[in-house]
C-alpha cells in the first residue's frame, strides 16, 4: 500500500479539481468514461429483481475466479497497480470507478451512476451530516443513482487510513447503487443481510486479489458511512 500522505488541505482541495485522463493521478481511463460519471445519457433500467436474486447473482459472480485476459482480470490488474502508487490524488477513485464496476459489480452500474466529491458542509446541508459517503436514488424514476464522497471526512487531518477509507467508502456506496439499480425503487435494500452478504463478497475478492481487507467491522461496513 502507498505511503500515508500528510497534506490534508492539499488532498481536500484536489477533490474539487476537474478530473481529466491526462492530468493528475496516473490511471488509464478515457474522457468518455469520466464524462459519463457526470452527465449520464438516457437511462434504461433493467427489469427489477428481488433483493435475494440481486444478492446471490452478484455473490456468485464474485466467487468465480476471473478468466485470465478477461475484462474483469484486466480491471483487477489496473486496480492492483493503483494500490501501490506513491503519487496519487482523490481523482484516482473517480478514474478507477469503471474498473471497480467491472471487477466487483459485473458492470451493472455503468451509465446509471454518477460519483463526485463533496464538501462536508454541502452534505450536512443536504441532510447527511458526519458521513464518509452517501448514495441517493433518483428523485424522479428513471434517473441516476448519485454517489457523494465526503472529502473532509475521508481526508480528515491525522487519519492514517484515508487511502483505504477512500476505496472502502466508494465500494460501500456502489453496493447501495447496485441494489437501487437492480431492485428498483420499491425493493429498497438498507444495511441488512443482503447488503452485508455482498459487502463481504466484495471484501473477499479484494482480499484474494490484493492481500488486504477493504471492509472493516463485524457488520460489513465502515463506521460513519450512510
Description:
The radius of gyration is 16 Å and the shape is globular. The two termini are about 25 Å apart. It has about 230 residues and is mostly helical. The relative contact order is 0.17. Mean pLDDT is about 85; it is low at about 220-225. A three-stranded mixed beta sheet has the order 1-3-2. The protein is built from ten helices and three strands. It has helices at about 10-15, 30-35, 50-65, 70-80, 90-95, 95-105, 120-125, 150-155, 160-185, 195-210, and strands at about 115-120, 135, 145-150. About 45% of the residues lie in helices and about 5% in strands. The longest helix has 22 residues, at about 160-185.
Portion in helices:
40-55%
Envelope shape: globular
Report mean pLDDT, rounded to a whole number.
Answer: 87
Radius of gyration: 16 Å
Strand order of the largest sheet: 1-3-2
Terminal CA distance reads 26 Å
Secondary structure tally, helices: 10
How are the elements arranged and paired?
Layout: H1 8-14, H2 31-36, H3 51-63, H4 71-82, H5 91-95, H6 97-105, E1 113-118, H7 120-125, E2 133-136, E3 145-150, H8 151-154, H9 162-183, H10 193-210
Give me a quick take on this structure.
This protein is mainly alpha-helical and 226 residues long.
Structural key phrases:
single chain, 226 residues, mainly alpha, 3-stranded mixed beta sheet, 10 helices, globular
Amino acid at each position: 500500500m502507498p505511503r500515508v500522505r500528510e497534506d490534508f488541505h492539499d488532498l481536500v482541495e484536489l477533490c474539487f479539481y476537474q478530473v481529466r485522463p491526462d492530468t493528475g493521478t496516473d490511471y488509464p481511463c478515457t474522457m468518455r468514461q469520466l464524462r459519463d460519471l457526470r452527465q449520464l445519457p438516457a437511462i434504461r433500467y433493467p427489469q427489477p429483481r428481488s433483493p435475494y436474486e440481486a444478492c446471490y447473482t452478484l455473490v456468485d459472480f464474485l466467487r468465480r475466479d476471473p478468466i485470465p485476459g478477461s475484462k474483469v482480470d484486466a480491471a483487477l490488474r489496473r486496480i492492483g497497480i493503483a494500490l501501490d502508487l506513491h503519487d496519487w490524488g482523490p481523482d484516482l477513485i473517480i478514474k478507477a470507478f469503471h474498473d471497480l464496476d467491472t471487477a466487483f459489480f459485473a458492470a451493472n452500474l455503468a451509465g446509471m451512476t454518477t460519483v463526485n466529491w463533496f464538501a462536508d458542509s454541502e452534505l450536512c446541508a443536504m441532510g447527511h451530516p458526519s458521513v464518509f459517503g452517501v448514495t441517493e436514488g433518483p428523485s424522479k424514476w428513471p434517473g441516476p443513482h448519485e454517489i457523494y464522497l465526503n472529502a473532509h471526512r475521508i481526508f480528515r487531518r491525522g487519519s492514517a487510513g484515508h487511502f483505504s477509507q477512500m476505496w472502502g467508502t466508494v465500494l460501500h456506496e456502489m453496493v447501495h447503487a447496485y441494489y437501487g439499480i437492480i431492485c428498483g425503487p420499491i425493493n429498497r435494500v438498507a444495511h441488512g443481510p443482503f447488503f452485508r452478504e455482498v459487502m463481504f463478497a466484495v471484501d473477499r475478492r479484494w482480499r484474494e486479489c490484493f492481500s488486504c481487507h477493504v471492509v472493516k467491522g463485524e457488520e460489513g461496513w465502515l463506521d460513519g458511512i450512510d
